[in-house]
Amino acid sequence: SKDPISSAFFSLSSPNNDEKVQALTTIINLAVEENNRQLISNHGAKFSQIVNCLQSNDNQISNFAAQAIANLALNENCRVSFGRYNAIQGLVNLLKTKITTADPIHIKRTLSALANMCLQNDDHREQLGAAGFFDILSKILNLSNNEITESALTTTINSSSNQFNQNRIANSDAIPSIAKLLAKIPQSQTSTISIILHAFAMLSTGEPQVIEQIVNSGAVIQIVQHLSNTNVQNVQNVLTTIVNVSTDELLLPKLMDANVIEALTLSLSSPNQVYSNTQIQTYILQAIQNFALIDSGAARIFQLGSIDNILPKLNSTNVGIIDQVCRVVANLCVNPQIRKVIVQKGGIQLLEKTVEKLKSGGSSATLEVAQLALANSKAPC
């Protein structure tokens, strides 16, 4: 007798729909375990049968085919085999037809299959974009189903690093749709909020046109509000987005209009336990130093009284925090008025102490930054 895997693939070629459903059910159940996924990957030449089932007029067959791909695509060899048979195009085509019928289970399974197909495979990410996924993303998000939203955004996260997809995202209404979603979602929907914040953090690492769209869509106003979140990963994703979008000096005025500096300043003195995390503090200071590069940004930082919270962090034992504080101070000291206040608050003494400490052991790059900050602070007022 045949083993269950061979029997399942044999049944997939049957004209009987019930036999196909049973075969797909067997594959789905077996593919829950990685050992079985590896065994099934040896039948990769027959994966076209599963992909062909995506085109079935029988909803159960196409639904189960998507689930089978979702489970199997967690295995790298299976992903590659499905890629040979244009599984991604088949899944996106299926998704386009199911959006109109609003079958939530079917849509979620199809999205899960796409998300898994894009894991660690840039060719598949490119195929996803070329198949038109980002053109329909806003329609998917408009279905207002949390599970579907999370699956759609996970697919976006897994595929957004592809350079071609960056252009596709910028030329679609995906980012404004995600921004609108964040604006209206209840605070109780914590898992969906986490995925949205993760999506923006990933998107903000991309091409200039994507970063510009994040800012112009009004998303930053919504993102910044989640700095008060008590989840470290969420706050880190918020700060990653802010740091990345604030690297473009031309966008800084718009970010200031969104009260980003105010939010960052409050974070420095917040009792929220999240902000005791050294990496979080480093991100906050990195964002502040980006704003300190322009006159209006430095002036706003100064007006908000941030210096009292920034200078003491030179006493930190964390080199990353010291590095960012020195960068902030170096930038702020370009302004004579701010420089005078920094000197009055003991900035020179703190910087001299920092330089000596770094000379005795520390990062040479940080030492250079500290020396620059010290030199700037000693310039005539």
Features:
single chain; 381 residues; mainly alpha; elongated
What would you say this structure looks like, in words?
- It is a single chain.
- The model has no long low-confidence stretch (mean pLDDT 94).
- The relative contact order is 0.05.
- It is elongated, with a radius of gyration of 26 Å.
- It contains 26 helices and no strands.
- Helix 10 packs parallel to helix 13.
- With 381 residues, it is mainly alpha-helical.
- The longest helix has 15 residues.
- Helix content is 72%, strand content 0%.
Helix and strand layout, with pairings?
Layout: H1 4-12, H2 17-30, H3 34-41, H4 47-53, H5 59-72, H6 76-84, H7 87-101, H8 104-117, H9 122-130, H10 133-141, H11 146-159, H12 163-170, H13 174-184, H14 190-203, H15 208-216, H16 219-224, H17 232-245, H18 252-257, H19 260-268, H20 278-291, H21 295-303, H22 307-310, H23 319-332, H24 336-344, H25 347-359, H26 364-377
Helix pairs in contact: 1-2, 2-5, 5-8, 7-8, 8-11, 9-12, 10-11, 10-13, 11-14, 14-17, 17-20, 19-20, 20-23, 23-26, 25-26
